[in-house]
Amino acid sequence: MTLQAMAEQLAEFVTENPNNAIQTSYALDPNLAGIPYFEAPLLGCALADDPLFVQFQSDPVIIGPMFRLPQQWLPGAKSIISFFLPFTEEIRSSNYDNLGEPSEAWLHGRAEGQNFLMEVCRQLVQWLEDDGYEAVIPAGHPDFCTNRDPNRVALGQPMFTSNWSERHVAFVAGLGTFSLTKHLITEKGVCGRFGSVITTAPLTPTPRPYSDPYEYCTFCGACTRRCPVNAIHVDTGKDMMTCAAFMDKNKATYAPRHGCGKCQLKLPCTTRRPGKA
After folding, report:
1. For residue 274, is it within any domain?
2. Were both Cys, which of 161, 185, 223, 275 would link to 263 (CB 3.0–4.6 Å)?
3. How many independent structural domains does the chain possess?
4. Segment 194-206, tens digit of pLDDT
5. What are phi and psi of 114, to 5 degrees?
């Protein structure tokens, strides 16, 4: 199956899947049942031996030694399929206001929406295996892990790292560049979720129409005014320690769900790449 054919099938799988919606069985409010999580996805592909992956592993300012190369997840890996699922207008608009609290629909999108995202990953694996190839989902692998180390901040390194970064992989796969908030700006904006699958299938990589990691960000500062705890600044970027403390509070308040998302909404890059209609 070509990447284009896979993209077409995946769009149909997402938009027509009844699981791509808030279910009555767990809705925090009965009126939320039936609200869809995601629009049709963007799909990109990177080569498993792209030198950027080695750079992610070798440079602690990007990620560092914790990052696993594609071949360390799957021996014989040839390609990585990365996708972006944009949140629907119903999910986005529910979270526009009340900067101190996430909406109930947004909480579902962040939690149960992630469950559906993993279903999308599993469907990609099934298609690849049906074609005779191997495939793994790093985010669903028993070895997947994240690390939180505030001491790295003083060294100019990221506070949060993981052994597989969906945003960095999406950057390699041509889906977009980073923003002031550290989200990735795609052709469909920043408001959504990323997933990926590593495979032995020899797919054609997606061209990267950019060279700078922040090429799509205009540093307009709109996101700085959306942050409930003033953790984003045009000159210094995102204060991850302040953001993390606020998210910890949210996790305690809304467990087993959590979320904020305010800095992804009502921006020039919410649903598109800035500068494009």
Report:
1. no
2. 223
3. 1
4. 999 999 999 999 9
5. -65, -35
